[in-house]
Amino acid sequence: MSITPGILRRPRAAAAAFAVAALLASAACGGSSDTPDATGGPTADTLLSTAIQAPPSSFALTQLDGGQGSYVWGSLYDRLLYIDNTGAIKPNAAESFTYSADRKTLTLKLQQGMKFRSGAPVNAAAVKASLDRIRDTPGPNQANEASIASVEAPDESTVVIKLKHPDGSLLVNLAGINGVIGDPATMADPGSATDPMTSGPYELDKARTVPGSAYTLVRRDDYWNVKAYPFKTVRIVVMPDRAAVVNALRSGQLNAASVDPTQVDPLKAQGLQVKPIAASTAGIMFLADRKGTKLKPLGDLKVRQAINQVFDRTKLVQMFLRGSGMATTQVFNPKSQAFDASLDKDYPFDVAAAKKLMAEAGYADGFSVTMPSFVTTKPFEPVVTGALGAIGIKVTWEPVPLQNYSSALSSGKFPMFFAFYGLDHEAVLSTLYFSPGTPTNPFKSADPELTKLLDEANAATDDATAAAAYKKVNQFVVKNAWFAPILDIGTTWVTAKGISYLGDGTSVALDVRTFGNAG
Amino acid sequence: MLFYVARRLVSGLVLAVMVTLITFLLLAPSFNGIVGNRLGSAATPETVAQMKAQMGLDRPLATQYVDWLSHAVRGDLGRSYFTGIPVRDAVEQHLGVTLSIVLVTLMLTVVVSVALGVLAASKGGLVDRAVQALSLTGHLIPNLLIAIVLVYLLAVKSRLVPATGFTSLADDPAKWAQSIFIPVIALLIASVAGLTAQVRGTMIDELRKDYVRMLRTRGVPTRSVVLRHALRNAAGPALTVLSFEFVAMLGGALIIEKVFAIPGFGSYAFDASLQGDIPIIMGITVFAVLLVVVVNLTVDLVNGWLNPKARIF
To answer: Do A212 and B268 touch (CB under 8 A)?
Structure first.
């Protein structure tokens, strides 16, 4: 006797079977997934649909972070200045900005008629309140305002920032997180972490937003500069998995995203446009203990130079990045004013020469070092171990959970470490890499010559002078082997027809304005 | 029975307190790292100390835990350190997503596994060998591989279902079904493989027992012998396996959630752990423990209902 038909004759079993059939039928007959709801597909009014790997953190003014979440909060908040796609700093909510002759006073004139979503005016008092709150509240961006002595709002549309000393990174920061304008009436509310009162070009469509997963932004037609934002709706979906991004692009759920270079071919074959950016993130060996306080050999320039010569950078770019990146000995963006192409020839791959330098320094047998192993560095660790092993440096990798990243580096436990950092503006990178006591300079390395060069760059009254000064900073750190940069990792942007990626790698600002609708 | 249920629920609450205390103590050594990561490149010993004080992480551990617990018992699990979202809302939302996939998977698992297991046990021979081969194949094929193939065929090539994302049942039932179709299939295969083998094995054991022979000699129809008597007795072990599958799927759905960009419980727990988002980790722990307690209790009650000899209340 057959059992299965019997089961299907039973009402409850039949109901279950029907549910299965309904599920399958629904899936089979549902047609295209082009819906902007939680599945994230574009429809006629969703003109830009892109993906980020990690969700934005809090939207509270003092807790904004500079990762890919910038696409979201940068669309909600208006900013004083703006970095365009060529890397130039341009007026934005501040229609003009002027420095005093001594570069210690910055005067900003605000646009007229700007409004928060509530209808309240965006004025100098709001800008002052925002700058003051970021400076006075512990958070990731507080240190960027360390140079600010005071902020004044002499009238409705004028903001005067007085500095303790010239700060070359101030304008870049005012074009980023430190330039966001919050609503003084609500910026301290706990609710601002998820629903801040903002005055930017877009507002959050809460009905079509799942915090942490997908964000739908709808353009504000009353925004003062609405013409700069061609997309009426922007959909930003969190997709940690790179294969998911490719599938979403191929199935039409996304119309713009960055992908791994190895995944480009099927996308090209499907008619999608591909735009490679040669360098956006640097993989750098930080030779942090430059005085040799914890690891004596690192205090010797010859040892640091030897380390720089053991990496076959060109081969590594091919091996790890399939050519989507570049070999370099420099920590600055190849498109920046600080970059000097001739410096890339300073440390050619030459193990024999490296061994000679080690012997001259008195370390012919090498030495041992413990470096932190993060989930992000794991793929590179065998290469680093092998390369350093060639000159007798024995590496022990100590696992460190990612949540302990900053504290592990700041602790001074690791005299050298491998890490990745975005190729930001040279002024920002100078602050990041050379400020004493930060995770990237835990041994508080300083040098009178470098300090003088940084002061020159900070006090430069024009771009050419600043560029010359930052180039000298770069030359100093390469010649003195403060780092052993290995490679710059590129980004490959893929866009559907009708969408274009406008960046060229000069600016690393993550902003919806890097996308156009003329592709 | 009510007393038994109440006793189990109270012991579950005690268990939740113990597990959350252990979780909190395990997190404690990372406080500096968590704050440092929040500050990023601005992290110096001074700013870390300042922010720790602002977040209340500089207080004695006992004070911090009791403070958290006193709020938790009132339903206030705090807010995420990183996003500021209320923990309870966030965890419920992500748990709901995973449950809507896992429960459908389990329902289908029961239907398919019982059908296959009973068929194999009662028919034997070629049918049994075919079911065993299917079960083995289901065990051997990684569900991620199945997912990748299905995405290519059904999402990329045919565009019948979305390649990624999730639509909630409340928003749109049809789109919900579409969005969970591939994840459910991917989870279902291994789950069915496991339960089918279990049902087949216990059914074979039951069908060889004396009471089955007795029923057959008394002329009870085969269908009734198999479904009403043998299956009822075989259901106990299968239910236990099913409860294990459920608990495993809550965390095991992580890979599927990542691959399909589904905002589920597993990926949320994973991300919170990487970030060191203490309030979220604690909230997830509470929900996970309570869920396991409720599932185990339910299985015991259902077992008792199916088989009075197995009653422990």
So the answer is: yes
